[in-house]
Amino acid sequence: MNEVVYLYGALGVVLIGFYGLARAGHVLQQLLAVNVMGAGVFMLLLALATRHTPADAVPQALVLTGIVVAISTLALGLALIRRLAVEARQAEKRSDQEALHD
Amino acid sequence: MSQSIWPWLVLMTSALPGLVIFFIPETRRTLRSLLNVGAALVKLQLVGLLLLGLYAGESYHWQLPLLPGLTLSLKVDALAGLFLILSAVLWLLTTLYAIGYLEHSPHRSRFFGFFSLCVSATAGVAMSANLFTFVVFYELLTLATWPLVVHRGTPQALAAGRVYLRYTLVSGSVLLLGAVTLHALVGTPEFVPGGYVSDADVAQVWLWAVFVLLLIGLGVKAALVPLHGWLPRAMVAPAPVSALLHAVAVVKAGAFGIVRVMFEVFGIEFAADLGMADLLLGLAALTIVYGSWRALFESDLKKRLAFSTVSQVSYVALGVALAGPLGAIGGLIHIVHQGVMKITLFLAAGNYAETLGVHKVSELSGVGRRMPWTTAAFTLGALGMIGFPPLAGFVSKWYLGLGAWEAEANWVLAVLLVSGLLNAAYFLPLLYRAWFESPPAQWPQAQRLSRVFETHALLLFPPLVTASLVVLLGVLAGLNVTSLGWVQWLVKREFAL
Amino acid sequence: MTEWGLAALVVWPLLWGALTLVMPVRWAALPGVLGGVFFGTWVLTWAPQSVALGGWLPPLGLSWRLDGVSQFMIALVAWVGGLSSLYAWWDRSLPSAFWGLWLGVWAAMNALLLTADVFHFYVTLELLSVAAVALVALTPGPAATRAAFRYLLVSLTGSMLFLLGVALLYGRYGVLDMLLLRDAMQGDGITALALAVMTLGLMAKAAVFPLHGWLPQAHAKAQTVVSAVLSALVIKAGLYGLLRLWLDLFAPLTSQPDSQAGWVLALLGTVAIFWGGYQAFRTPALKPLVAWSTVAQVGVLVLALALMVEATTRDSDGLTETLWRGWVWLVAAHALAKAGWFLAAGTVQKRAGETRLAGLGVALQRSPLSVFAMALAVVSLAGLPLSMGFLGKWWLLSLAWELQAWLWLAVSLLGSLLTLAYGWRVLNLGLSTGHGAEPLTPQAPLQTVPTRLDAVALILSALSVLGALGGYWYWEAGA
Amino acid sequence: MTALIAWLGAGLITLGLMFFVAGTVGLLRFSPSINRLHALTKADTLGLGLVVMGLALQAPAVAVALKLVLIWSLALVSAALVSHLIGQSLCAQRRDP
Amino acid sequence: MIWLDLMLVGLILGLAWRCVHAIELMEAVVVFVALGMLVALAWARLQAPDAALAEAAIGAGLAGALLLATLRQLPAQAVRPQPLHWLWWGLWGLFGVTLLWAIGSILSTPVSLMPWVNTHLPEAGVSHPVTAVLLNFRALDTALELAVLLWAWMAQRALGESPDTSFHPVQGRVLATAVKALLPLMGLVAVYVLWRGSSAPGGAFQSGAVLAAAWLMLWLADLPGLDPRRWSVRLGWLGGVMVFFLVGLLGLVQGIGFMGYRPDQATGLILLIESAAALSIGLLLASMVLASLPGIKGRRA
């Protein structure tokens, strides 16, 4: 019976993530929203696993794989965000210098 | 099916040199010219041999399957031979002419490369043994001629090229659609005299749809009214290109396609039964009159010639659409005769422009005195167009008239008559002006291109040769070896006489 | 023996790609690329087969399935990838980090094309995304970084939607193997929902309209060779996935006689053709033009897919030989032509030090090989004879004819004309001599770029044309 | 006896949780960061200790109880460490400008 | 217990909502990390201790470190939410309703692969079913997932980030002493978690996370640790993928098939793979975090 709670909860998390993705006002928040969505999908898989007793090991293994994949993509996304910030700073510096030279 | 390498060789004798020429540095003029002329001579020899073989009953067939049920198929038959020999002869002459014409202009390697590819595509169109192959080479022809049309790279040239592409590519798509439709209906077998759709169990409406699609696709290149708009605009191209476009390659590919479709896809009797021939006849008659009418009012020499082409090429379609052996002879023979005459006119016009800077009709006054040889050639071409006996044009018109008589289409006779009169009306004043009016004090842009001749030797001889052909093809029409004999033999097979 | 070969398809590029972290990069890249081409070619000689990995048969284990589609796609990756690698090898402006990432893309593509397991498909998609996004980000500058981030975001969202579909399928059927899933497939709501979300996810990755927004930037800003492999190959991963979903995995659902879902795909493809073509016609710079062309061409491929789906609803043979062969042929034509076009475009841009089309005139005229390459690419993309694209278009038109789908027939013809229209913009400039009679003068001195780069582009484009001669072998003898 | 131990355990856990609540409230309400640390460590040390004690009473075996105690001691060490680090960095921040 | 679950799910939903609705980035990040912890708790409730451990350590812990490190480098700027078109809301609602409606039927069909797993578990070399699936039945998934991690690191390097060895956070001797004391314990835990994975929840991922934490601690305490110029470290990055695939090829040599083990060698081989994988995961994750730091304006020694 418990899994029903998690099943619908998982869908809720997916939907919130999806909504957040569209709404997010910052790249970092977009990335977080995708990961929220991912958490929802993982929860769905795990909730489905509990229909079997003992819990189905296959979805659990899939989720473990998924977690590592998710952290990898998160790391890449964050690296891109950091570079965006660095490049924005450089551009600012350049335009400052140009302003000085003018 | 035994594979014959000859059709393939005919293609390659111009395609291969063309590809090589692309990579020849701009400054190596001699090498490029040698290669070009050499290739043209080899091709001429080859085609001549093939014609002899054909006459002796040989058949030349080369196939490459591309998809299941779809084969790239090349075959030299009598009709192909007619077009092949025309293109081979005129290619040689225009190449020589172009070498002289483009002496100092940039991008010559590119020009001659595409020039050769264009001839290969024409040869491919001639030898196509099924509709699919025809479509392939027909489109290739478009692609190979576009860079020639825009060769000068000026805004006008580019604009003309855009119009040219718009017309030809759209028509190419329509042709493709027609071919695919026919393929879906009856497959794509080889062309066969008498056609292959008549025994197929297909609703007439589909056949009509296919016919209209094919006619639109072919009509653009054949410059049938109202699909002719690109032709006068393409006049910005260099003279040898115009000559090739008008006399051999593009418009003839369209006209030739109409012949193939009428004779060997639908079969002329079947097409006549369904009324397709009548449609074509009407369009052709309209084009003939309209083209001549427009030519009357053009003040630019090359444009006047262009509208003349619009008119004259439709004689081919007219002859075919008459659906009788005599008309067919007239139409087919006009493929050759119009080519020879029109190229003479264009080359002569090119000479005027190149030597004297004369472009307008009004500037022609007294040009006959300054350039008598060129003007003589021009005169022969023009008289041929009007249909003076015993020049080549007369032979065509004679047979067309007989064909119309035979088909009891008296109004076609009237059309021919009107067109002849219009022809005279727009050519004779030119001739009068050239020979009998006094030359101006100064030509618009005179150049001394040769110490001996009135213009550069390479510019002078090709039109003289073609002009003499205009005479010979008319005078010697009774001999079996000329175009008339060949076409008679050909038509006998189509009509199973 | 072939199992060794199959393993090598994935392991070989992956290991050499990993080794670029510890070895001199090119020493690792060279064997990686050569081996990749070798195995990717060899694959054509193997018999179609299934391999249960680790000896565990599905549903417990993972399996690889080599069939005609995957065979030819793997070979396509090998050849386009190999030639692009040659370009990369000679391209001095390319950072060395390219090689490891590119070998990762290659391995991921091969694994994706082999797998017969929906979850494993997801993993390979992610590996592909990570490596491909990083490839885009190899270009310095905020524009490229932003494009890369957007690509990552769309790609991740696509993966998540795909994974959601996988979860739904597992919840419904308790298996992950594609063949078993297909056999168990029922036409209920949850299955349709799984199809919908997985399709959405893959459409995002394949830049199918209206989820194409990320592509023009990502492909235009990337390094030349990266643009080429992304447009030619990586996009195809998503499209291949769509083929598998619609014509294989969910075939029992999609081939229902009353199924109308295919028309949605057809509609999206149609809009993509026109919108992409229109944008390509309007955009002021060269590489974005080529990138928008990809959007349009993806539309063609999706339209073809839709017609194939429609064909399966009409007769019960399912994904027949002629169907998939025609589609893969179209894919190959596009991949070769697009790789050639991108490489040529990038080379010309390098030479000019300029991206706007208007400033490229001189560079174009000094790069005859590249212009020729672009011309051939346009010929093939537009389906002019005699090219691979032409045969592909012939097939597509015949298919549309058989289905009596007149609208789509007209669409694909108009799409070709649109392709010619934007292709003409570039070629016209290559033939132009400027305003009036004077030749164009370059704004800035041209950069020296080795001609062999143009040559590689030309080889690829030429293959997309000359490949037509192999049509019969592909369709008949190869069967 | 068991009932008594169970009640005792529950009581200890409840008490511990109350410390957690108090700590959390402190974390939210106290204003300079160093004071927040103070609240946090109370919760971590005392709250966790009580909870662990309560759980240990209910543990099925001595080994399990020992493990719980081990966890608690590790948490103690880490809490002390982290508090120290945060405090250090706060001091540094105050010095820097 | 249903109340506990309801409360947990409610909290998770609330935090997820908070995360995507946060006005400040800091808030979003903190809420996301908290969400990770709660999700881990939920998974423990869903009888998935492996996933819970991994999520707590990797999904919340290391992701939190990466997020905070990134956040420090971003200029302070307000989040400006995108206005959403009503059409979008319609599609979203449709998607949601369909999803919620369709999911109901799934519960009535309790299908799973557990019977197959149980049948073949004795041949798998490990007795913990999750580990059996990960390292044996679906070994290629795991191998490629290690590749994803490796390539993400490669991507980060391609973006120009690498652990900056010249950057030393000076944290004083308390930390150094404590780390020296704790390090053996962490090593022990890592090994224990790894070894335990063959029969109970645990395994390479969790062990790798512990190792990553240990390496980060070493660096924080300014003790000699990770130097990416060292060959051993570079090889360590690839070790997991390499060993995994080499063992996979061994299966081919032995005729079992790619990625297969002889049943009698399975235990040993899996342990070998897991050790290499744990080492790689630890090194990669630690490198990723360290490489993300240098942009921070910190104190340099």
Architecture overview:
The complex is a heteropentamer of chains A (102), B (497), C (479), D (97) and E (301). With 102 residues, chain A is mostly helical. Helix content of chain A is 88%, strand content 0%. Chain A is built from 3 helices and no strands. In chain A, α1 packs antiparallel against α2 and α2 packs antiparallel against α3. The mean pLDDT of chain A is 90. The longest helix of chain B is centred in the middle third of the chain and has 32 residues. Chain B starts with 5 loop residues before the first helix and ends with a helix. With 479 residues, chain C is mainly α. Chain C folds into 2 domains: 254 residues, no CATH class; 222 residues, no CATH class. In chain C, 75% of the residues lie in helices and 2% in strands. A two-stranded antiparallel ribbon of chain C has the order 1-2. In chain C, α6 packs antiparallel against α8 and α14 runs antiparallel to α16. About 1% of the residues of chain C have low confidence. By secondary structure, chain D is mainly α. Helices cover 91% and strands 0% of the residues of chain D. Chain D contains 3 helices and no strands. The relative contact order of chain D is 0.13. The mean pLDDT of chain D is 83. The interface between A and C is medium-sized, with 30 and 26 residues.
Q: How many H/I helical runs of chain D?
A: 3
Distance between the termini of chain D: 62 Å
Total strands of chain B: 2
Q: Major beta sheet of chain D, specifics?
A: none
**Assembly state of the chains shown:** heteropentamer
Q: What does the main sheet of chain B amount to? A: 2 strands, antiparallel
Strand content of chain B: under 5%
Largest contact between protein chains?
A-E, 73 and 91 residues
Feature tags:
heteropentamer, B: 497 residues, mainly alpha, 73% helix, E: 301 residues, 11 helices, 0% strand, disordered C terminus
Q: How would you concisely characterize the structure shown here?
A:
With 497 residues, chain B is mainly alpha-helical. Chain B contains 20 helices and two strands.
Write the layout of secondary structure elements.
The complex is a heteropentamer of chains A (102), B (497), C (479), D (97) and E (301).
Chain A (H helix, E strand, L loop, with lengths): L1 H22 L3 H23 L7 H45 L1
Helix pairs in contact in A: 1-2, 2-3
Chain C lengths: L1 H18 L5 H18 L6 E4 L10 E4 L1 H23 L6 H18 L3 H19 L5 H32 L4 H7 L4 H18 L8 H7 L2 H26 L1 H4 L6 H22 L3 H29 L6 H32 L8 H5 L2 H15 L5 H15 L3 H26 L19 H16 L4 H7 L2
Antiparallel strand pairs in C: 1-2
Helix pairs in contact in C: 1-2, 1-4, 2-3, 2-4, 3-4, 3-10, 3-14, 3-19, 4-5, 4-10, 5-6, 5-10, 6-8, 6-9, 8-10, 9-10, 9-13, 10-13, 10-14, 12-13, 12-18, 13-14, 13-18, 14-16, 14-17, 14-19, 16-18, 16-19, 17-18
Chain E lengths: L1 H20 L3 H21 L3 H25 L12 H22 L6 H7 L8 H9 L1 H20 L14 H24 L7 H17 L10 H23 L9 H29 L10
Helix pairs in contact in E: 1-2, 2-3, 3-9, 6-7, 7-10, 7-11, 8-9, 9-11, 10-11
